Each structure stands twice: as C-alpha cells, then as structure tokens.
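New here. Invent one.

***
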Amino acid sequence: MEAVGKARKWGNSLGVVLPNEFVRDENIEEGDEVLILKKKPDLRALRGIIKGTKMTGQQFKDEARKSWGD
C-alpha cells in the first residue's frame, strides 16, 4: 500500500504527516521505522524541455523511470 504524506516544519527539521487510514491499515505505531521514497517528478512540468533534442517523449519517460528505481 502506498500513501501520500505532507512534509511540515517541525522545529529545525521537517516531519511527514501520514494519513490516518494508512497508519491504521499498516499498523504503524510510534517509534516504528518508515521508509520514505523521494517523490517522483511530474513529467507534465517538464513539457517543452525536450524540444530541440532527438529524444522522443516516450524515450524521455523511459529514461526518467530508470532513475525512479521502478
């Protein structure tokens, strides 16, 4: 199961708030270690960047996915 949390300021650090449903479904308790993966970029925000390259949109997406580890 995956969830989207929101990063919030917590003193001099950032904390991630997890949705209650996710916490309940995954039986997460205080003190448990939780693996956080870097968010994936929104490829729509990159629209137009590949203009002038010889790379197709599909090739660009394939290259981007390699860095996601999927």
User: Anything to note?
Assistant: The longest helix spans residues 57-68. The helical segments are 20-25, 57-68. The chain has a mean pLDDT of 79. DSSP finds two helices and two strands in the chain.
